[in-house]
Design a protein that fits this description.
binds guanosine-5'-diphosphate; single chain; binds magnesium ion; Four Helix Bundle (Hemerythrin (Met), subunit A); 12 helices; alpha/beta; about 350 residues; 6 strands
Amino acid sequence: MEKKWRCPEETLRKVPTYGEIREYVLKVGIESISLSKSVSRKALVRYATRIDRVFSYLTRNVIGPLKGFKGILQIGFYKDIASNALPEGYSIDDVVGKLLGKLRKVSVLSREYKARVSASFDSAEAKEIYREYIGRVLSIVRKLSKDIELVNRAIAELRRTPCIDPSLPVIAVAGLPQVGKSTLVSVISSAKPKSSPFPFTTKEIVMGHIDYGFSRFQILDLPGILDRPPERMNEIERKAFIAITNLANLILYLIDPSEDFYYGLESQLNLLRYFKENVKVDIIVVVNKIDKVSPERLEKVVTAASEVVPGTEIIKVSALGRIGLEELLRTLAKHIGRSSEL
Ligand SMILES: Nc1nc2c(ncn2[C@@H]2O[C@H](COP(=O)(O)OP(=O)(O)O)[C@@H](O)[C@H]2O)c(=O)[nH]1
Ligand SMILES: [Mg+2]
Protein backbone atom coordinates (compact mmCIF):
# COMPACT_ATOMS: atom_id res chain seq x y z
CA MET A 1 0.00 0.00 0.00
CA GLU A 2 1.51 3.31 -1.05
CA LYS A 3 1.38 6.28 1.26
CA LYS A 4 -0.57 9.46 0.59
CA TRP A 5 0.64 11.03 -2.64
CA ARG A 6 2.71 14.16 -2.24
CA CYS A 7 4.32 16.52 -4.71
CA PRO A 8 8.09 16.83 -4.38
CA GLU A 9 8.23 20.44 -5.43
CA GLU A 10 5.80 21.54 -2.77
CA THR A 11 7.07 19.22 -0.05
CA LEU A 12 10.83 19.16 -0.36
CA ARG A 13 13.31 21.67 0.97
CA LYS A 14 17.06 21.57 0.68
CA VAL A 15 18.97 20.77 3.87
CA PRO A 16 21.56 23.39 4.96
CA THR A 17 25.17 22.39 4.45
CA TYR A 18 27.68 22.00 7.27
CA GLY A 19 29.00 25.51 6.47
CA GLU A 20 25.55 27.06 6.71
CA ILE A 21 24.75 25.27 9.96
CA ARG A 22 28.06 26.33 11.44
CA GLU A 23 27.46 29.95 10.46
CA TYR A 24 24.07 29.94 12.18
CA VAL A 25 25.38 28.25 15.32
CA LEU A 26 28.25 30.73 15.67
CA LYS A 27 25.83 33.62 15.25
CA VAL A 28 23.66 32.27 18.08
CA GLY A 29 26.74 32.35 20.30
CA ILE A 30 27.11 36.11 19.99
CA GLU A 31 23.59 37.39 19.61
CA SER A 32 22.09 39.24 22.54
CA ILE A 33 19.33 37.60 24.50
CA SER A 34 17.15 39.93 26.52
CA LEU A 35 15.49 38.59 29.62
CA SER A 36 12.94 40.19 31.93
CA LYS A 37 14.13 41.66 35.19
CA SER A 38 12.58 38.95 37.30
CA VAL A 39 14.75 36.21 35.80
CA SER A 40 17.46 35.11 38.17
CA ARG A 41 20.80 33.59 37.18
CA LYS A 42 20.55 35.41 33.84
CA ALA A 43 23.87 34.23 32.39
CA LEU A 44 22.90 30.60 32.81
CA VAL A 45 19.48 31.16 31.29
CA ARG A 46 21.10 32.85 28.30
CA TYR A 47 23.26 29.81 27.56
CA ALA A 48 20.30 27.49 28.01
CA THR A 49 18.32 29.65 25.56
CA ARG A 50 21.15 29.42 23.05
CA ILE A 51 21.05 25.66 23.25
CA ASP A 52 17.30 25.81 22.56
CA ARG A 53 17.87 28.06 19.56
CA VAL A 54 20.50 25.79 18.04
CA PHE A 55 18.37 22.73 18.50
CA SER A 56 15.19 24.30 17.19
CA TYR A 57 17.08 25.54 14.13
CA LEU A 58 18.21 21.97 13.45
CA THR A 59 14.68 20.67 13.99
CA ARG A 60 13.15 23.16 11.58
CA ASN A 61 15.81 23.15 8.90
CA VAL A 62 17.33 19.70 8.98
CA ILE A 63 15.15 17.17 10.77
CA GLY A 64 11.90 18.60 9.30
CA PRO A 65 13.03 18.52 5.66
CA LEU A 66 14.55 15.06 6.15
CA LYS A 67 11.25 13.73 7.48
CA GLY A 68 9.41 15.26 4.51
CA PHE A 69 11.92 13.62 2.21
CA LYS A 70 11.49 10.28 3.95
CA GLY A 71 7.73 10.56 3.36
CA ILE A 72 8.25 11.09 -0.38
CA LEU A 73 10.53 8.04 -0.50
CA GLN A 74 7.53 5.87 0.40
CA ILE A 75 6.38 6.37 -3.18
CA GLY A 76 8.18 3.90 -5.42
CA PHE A 77 8.60 6.22 -8.38
CA TYR A 78 10.15 9.03 -6.36
CA LYS A 79 12.34 6.63 -4.44
CA ASP A 80 13.75 5.21 -7.68
CA ILE A 81 14.35 8.70 -9.06
CA ALA A 82 16.13 9.72 -5.82
CA SER A 83 18.31 6.59 -5.83
CA ASN A 84 19.16 7.14 -9.48
CA ALA A 85 20.57 10.58 -8.59
CA LEU A 86 23.12 9.06 -6.17
CA PRO A 87 26.49 7.63 -7.18
CA GLU A 88 26.78 3.87 -7.57
CA GLY A 89 26.69 1.97 -4.29
CA TYR A 90 24.71 4.42 -2.13
CA SER A 91 21.26 3.65 -0.81
CA ILE A 92 19.02 6.65 -0.27
CA ASP A 93 17.26 4.94 2.65
CA ASP A 94 20.60 4.31 4.36
CA VAL A 95 21.72 7.91 3.89
CA VAL A 96 18.50 9.37 5.29
CA GLY A 97 18.41 6.79 8.09
CA LYS A 98 21.96 7.64 9.10
CA LEU A 99 21.27 11.38 9.13
CA LEU A 100 18.13 11.07 11.22
CA GLY A 101 19.89 8.65 13.59
CA LYS A 102 22.76 11.06 14.22
CA LEU A 103 20.36 13.95 14.68
CA ARG A 104 18.55 12.01 17.36
CA LYS A 105 21.86 11.94 19.14
CA VAL A 106 22.02 15.73 18.86
CA SER A 107 18.58 15.92 20.42
CA VAL A 108 19.74 13.85 23.39
CA LEU A 109 22.88 16.00 23.71
CA SER A 110 20.83 19.19 23.66
CA ARG A 111 18.70 18.05 26.57
CA GLU A 112 21.70 16.85 28.50
CA TYR A 113 23.76 20.02 28.00
CA LYS A 114 20.82 22.29 28.75
CA ALA A 115 20.42 20.57 32.12
CA ARG A 116 24.14 20.91 32.80
CA VAL A 117 24.17 24.60 31.90
CA SER A 118 21.18 25.25 34.14
CA ALA A 119 22.87 23.49 37.03
CA SER A 120 26.26 25.13 36.58
CA PHE A 121 27.96 27.05 39.35
CA ASP A 122 28.56 30.37 37.60
CA SER A 123 28.57 32.00 34.18
CA ALA A 124 32.16 30.92 33.43
CA GLU A 125 31.23 27.29 33.94
CA ALA A 126 28.01 27.70 31.89
CA LYS A 127 30.02 29.20 29.06
CA GLU A 128 32.47 26.31 29.15
CA ILE A 129 29.66 23.76 29.00
CA TYR A 130 27.95 25.65 26.19
CA ARG A 131 31.18 25.67 24.17
CA GLU A 132 31.57 21.96 24.64
CA TYR A 133 27.99 21.49 23.41
CA ILE A 134 28.60 23.53 20.25
CA GLY A 135 31.84 21.64 19.62
CA ARG A 136 30.09 18.29 19.83
CA VAL A 137 27.13 19.31 17.70
CA LEU A 138 29.33 20.79 14.98
CA SER A 139 31.59 17.78 15.04
CA ILE A 140 28.61 15.48 14.45
CA VAL A 141 27.27 17.67 11.63
CA ARG A 142 30.69 17.99 10.01
CA LYS A 143 30.99 14.23 9.76
CA LEU A 144 27.60 14.22 8.00
CA SER A 145 28.69 16.69 5.28
CA LYS A 146 28.86 14.03 2.58
CA ASP A 147 25.47 12.58 3.52
CA ILE A 148 23.88 16.04 3.47
CA GLU A 149 25.35 16.62 0.05
CA LEU A 150 23.93 13.30 -1.22
CA VAL A 151 20.49 14.04 0.19
CA ASN A 152 20.52 17.50 -1.38
CA ARG A 153 21.45 16.01 -4.71
CA ALA A 154 18.45 13.67 -4.54
CA ILE A 155 16.17 16.47 -3.32
CA ALA A 156 17.24 18.71 -6.22
CA GLU A 157 16.50 15.88 -8.65
CA LEU A 158 13.08 15.27 -7.16
CA ARG A 159 12.23 18.96 -7.26
CA ARG A 160 12.80 18.82 -11.01
CA THR A 161 10.54 15.78 -11.28
CA PRO A 162 6.90 16.50 -12.06
CA CYS A 163 4.10 15.87 -9.63
CA ILE A 164 2.10 12.98 -11.04
CA ASP A 165 -1.55 12.64 -10.09
CA PRO A 166 -2.08 8.95 -9.32
CA SER A 167 -5.79 9.19 -10.11
CA LEU A 168 -5.25 10.07 -13.78
CA PRO A 169 -3.91 7.68 -16.44
CA VAL A 170 -0.31 8.14 -17.52
CA ILE A 171 0.91 7.77 -21.08
CA ALA A 172 4.66 7.48 -21.49
CA VAL A 173 6.27 8.53 -24.75
CA ALA A 174 9.29 6.35 -25.40
CA GLY A 175 11.79 5.74 -28.14
CA LEU A 176 15.33 6.40 -29.24
CA PRO A 177 16.71 9.94 -29.19
CA GLN A 178 15.54 12.17 -32.06
CA VAL A 179 12.41 10.25 -33.06
CA GLY A 180 10.22 13.28 -32.23
CA LYS A 181 8.97 12.55 -28.71
CA SER A 182 9.21 16.13 -27.46
CA THR A 183 7.69 17.50 -30.66
CA LEU A 184 4.74 15.14 -30.35
CA VAL A 185 4.14 15.90 -26.67
CA SER A 186 4.28 19.62 -27.40
CA VAL A 187 1.63 19.41 -30.12
CA ILE A 188 -0.86 17.12 -28.37
CA SER A 189 -0.57 18.24 -24.73
CA SER A 190 -0.25 21.25 -22.46
CA ALA A 191 3.49 20.65 -22.01
CA LYS A 192 5.94 22.49 -24.20
CA PRO A 193 9.18 20.55 -23.94
CA LYS A 194 12.09 21.68 -26.02
CA SER A 195 12.74 19.70 -29.19
CA SER A 196 15.91 19.96 -31.20
CA PRO A 197 17.96 18.31 -33.91
CA PHE A 198 20.46 17.14 -31.28
CA PRO A 199 20.13 13.89 -29.33
CA PHE A 200 19.73 13.99 -25.53
CA THR A 201 18.13 17.44 -25.49
CA THR A 202 15.51 16.05 -23.12
CA LYS A 203 17.21 15.29 -19.82
CA GLU A 204 14.24 15.50 -17.47
CA ILE A 205 10.83 13.93 -17.30
CA VAL A 206 8.25 16.46 -18.48
CA MET A 207 4.57 16.04 -17.79
CA GLY A 208 1.69 17.50 -19.77
CA HIS A 209 -2.05 17.03 -19.80
CA ILE A 210 -4.27 15.99 -22.66
CA ASP A 211 -7.96 16.78 -22.50
CA TYR A 212 -9.88 14.74 -25.01
CA GLY A 213 -13.65 14.57 -24.90
CA PHE A 214 -14.46 13.97 -21.27
CA SER A 215 -11.13 12.34 -20.54
CA ARG A 216 -8.01 13.77 -19.06
CA PHE A 217 -4.63 12.06 -19.27
CA GLN A 218 -1.14 12.80 -18.19
CA ILE A 219 1.50 12.37 -20.84
CA LEU A 220 5.20 12.11 -20.10
CA ASP A 221 7.90 13.30 -22.44
CA LEU A 222 10.93 11.21 -21.59
CA PRO A 223 14.63 11.27 -22.40
CA GLY A 224 15.58 9.02 -25.31
CA ILE A 225 16.71 5.47 -24.61
CA LEU A 226 19.39 3.74 -26.63
CA ASP A 227 19.22 0.13 -27.68
CA ARG A 228 21.45 -1.37 -25.00
CA PRO A 229 20.95 -3.49 -21.88
CA PRO A 230 19.61 -1.58 -18.83
CA GLU A 231 22.85 -2.12 -16.89
CA ARG A 232 24.70 -0.10 -19.52
CA MET A 233 22.23 2.78 -19.54
CA ASN A 234 23.30 6.15 -18.23
CA GLU A 235 21.53 8.08 -15.48
CA ILE A 236 19.36 10.01 -17.94
CA GLU A 237 18.18 6.95 -19.86
CA ARG A 238 17.42 5.23 -16.55
CA LYS A 239 15.08 8.09 -15.62
CA ALA A 240 12.96 7.26 -18.65
CA PHE A 241 12.88 3.61 -17.61
CA ILE A 242 11.94 4.46 -14.03
CA ALA A 243 9.00 6.55 -15.26
CA ILE A 244 7.83 3.82 -17.62
CA THR A 245 8.03 0.97 -15.13
CA ASN A 246 6.55 2.89 -12.18
CA LEU A 247 3.92 5.08 -13.77
CA ALA A 248 2.88 4.21 -17.29
CA ASN A 249 -0.56 2.83 -18.10
CA LEU A 250 0.32 2.93 -21.77
CA ILE A 251 3.50 3.35 -23.79
CA LEU A 252 3.52 5.34 -27.01
CA TYR A 253 6.51 3.92 -28.78
CA LEU A 254 7.75 6.36 -31.40
CA ILE A 255 9.63 5.26 -34.49
CA ASP A 256 11.45 7.43 -37.00
CA PRO A 257 10.99 5.67 -40.35
CA SER A 258 13.52 7.76 -42.29
CA GLU A 259 16.16 5.84 -44.18
CA ASP A 260 18.81 8.25 -42.97
CA PHE A 261 17.78 8.10 -39.29
CA TYR A 262 21.00 8.22 -37.30
CA TYR A 263 20.32 5.19 -35.10
CA GLY A 264 18.74 3.11 -37.88
CA LEU A 265 15.54 1.05 -37.93
CA GLU A 266 17.00 -2.11 -36.44
CA SER A 267 17.89 -0.53 -33.12
CA GLN A 268 14.39 0.99 -32.88
CA LEU A 269 12.86 -2.43 -33.42
CA ASN A 270 15.22 -3.98 -30.87
CA LEU A 271 14.16 -1.51 -28.20
CA LEU A 272 10.50 -2.10 -29.09
CA ARG A 273 11.08 -5.84 -28.68
CA TYR A 274 12.75 -5.21 -25.35
CA PHE A 275 9.69 -3.29 -24.09
CA LYS A 276 7.31 -5.95 -25.31
CA GLU A 277 9.24 -8.72 -23.59
CA ASN A 278 10.20 -6.96 -20.36
CA VAL A 279 7.70 -4.27 -19.49
CA LYS A 280 4.16 -5.28 -18.63
CA VAL A 281 2.49 -2.20 -20.08
CA ASP A 282 0.37 -1.92 -23.24
CA ILE A 283 2.10 -0.38 -26.23
CA ILE A 284 0.86 1.66 -29.16
CA VAL A 285 3.41 2.10 -31.92
CA VAL A 286 3.52 5.56 -33.47
CA VAL A 287 5.43 5.89 -36.70
CA ASN A 288 6.31 9.60 -36.80
CA LYS A 289 7.74 11.86 -39.54
CA ILE A 290 5.58 10.37 -42.28
CA ASP A 291 6.04 13.68 -44.13
CA LYS A 292 9.65 12.65 -44.70
CA VAL A 293 9.28 9.20 -46.27
CA SER A 294 7.81 7.55 -49.33
CA PRO A 295 4.66 5.41 -49.01
CA GLU A 296 6.77 2.33 -49.84
CA ARG A 297 9.27 3.02 -47.10
CA LEU A 298 6.46 3.70 -44.65
CA GLU A 299 4.79 0.37 -45.44
CA LYS A 300 8.08 -1.42 -45.02
CA VAL A 301 8.58 0.10 -41.56
CA VAL A 302 4.99 -0.63 -40.50
CA THR A 303 5.33 -4.26 -41.59
CA ALA A 304 8.63 -4.64 -39.76
CA ALA A 305 7.15 -3.17 -36.57
CA SER A 306 4.06 -5.35 -36.74
CA GLU A 307 6.28 -8.42 -36.93
CA VAL A 308 7.91 -7.42 -33.66
CA VAL A 309 4.63 -6.67 -31.87
CA PRO A 310 1.90 -8.59 -33.70
CA GLY A 311 -1.61 -7.32 -33.01
CA THR A 312 -0.38 -4.00 -31.61
CA GLU A 313 -1.95 -0.88 -32.98
CA ILE A 314 0.31 1.14 -35.28
CA ILE A 315 -0.55 4.77 -35.98
CA LYS A 316 1.15 6.92 -38.60
CA VAL A 317 1.66 10.58 -37.82
CA SER A 318 3.73 13.64 -38.47
CA ALA A 319 4.10 15.57 -35.25
CA LEU A 320 5.76 18.46 -37.05
CA GLY A 321 3.26 18.44 -39.92
CA ARG A 322 0.30 17.86 -37.55
CA ILE A 323 -0.86 14.82 -39.53
CA GLY A 324 -2.77 11.89 -37.99
CA LEU A 325 -2.98 13.45 -34.53
CA GLU A 326 -6.76 13.20 -34.22
CA GLU A 327 -6.63 9.48 -34.92
CA LEU A 328 -3.81 9.11 -32.43
CA LEU A 329 -5.80 10.85 -29.69
CA ARG A 330 -8.88 8.75 -30.47
CA THR A 331 -6.82 5.58 -30.23
CA LEU A 332 -5.25 6.72 -26.96
CA ALA A 333 -8.62 7.46 -25.42
CA LYS A 334 -10.01 4.14 -26.58
CA HIS A 335 -7.05 2.30 -25.20
CA ILE A 336 -7.11 3.91 -21.83
CA GLY A 337 -10.69 2.73 -21.66
CA ARG A 338 -12.31 6.06 -21.10
CA SER A 339 -13.72 6.58 -24.57
CA SER A 340 -16.83 4.42 -24.23
CA GLU A 341 -18.91 7.47 -23.37
CA LEU A 342 -17.54 9.66 -26.16
N1 LIG B 1 10.18 15.99 -40.74
C1 LIG B 1 9.81 15.83 -39.48
N2 LIG B 1 10.65 16.12 -38.47
C2 LIG B 1 10.23 15.95 -37.22
C3 LIG B 1 8.94 15.47 -36.92
N3 LIG B 1 8.81 15.40 -35.59
C4 LIG B 1 9.99 15.82 -35.06
N4 LIG B 1 10.85 16.16 -36.03
C5 LIG B 1 12.21 16.68 -35.88
O1 LIG B 1 13.04 15.68 -35.33
C6 LIG B 1 14.04 16.27 -34.49
C7 LIG B 1 13.98 15.65 -33.10
O2 LIG B 1 12.76 16.01 -32.49
P1 LIG B 1 12.55 15.91 -30.91
O3 LIG B 1 11.10 16.16 -30.70
O4 LIG B 1 13.52 16.76 -30.20
O5 LIG B 1 12.91 14.38 -30.68
P2 LIG B 1 13.12 13.58 -29.30
O6 LIG B 1 14.58 13.50 -29.08
O7 LIG B 1 12.54 12.23 -29.55
O8 LIG B 1 12.40 14.33 -28.24
C8 LIG B 1 13.73 17.77 -34.46
O9 LIG B 1 14.60 18.39 -35.36
C9 LIG B 1 12.29 17.85 -34.92
O10 LIG B 1 11.98 19.06 -35.55
C10 LIG B 1 8.05 15.17 -38.01
O11 LIG B 1 6.91 14.77 -37.86
N5 LIG B 1 8.56 15.37 -39.25
MG1 LIG C 1 13.08 15.04 -26.45
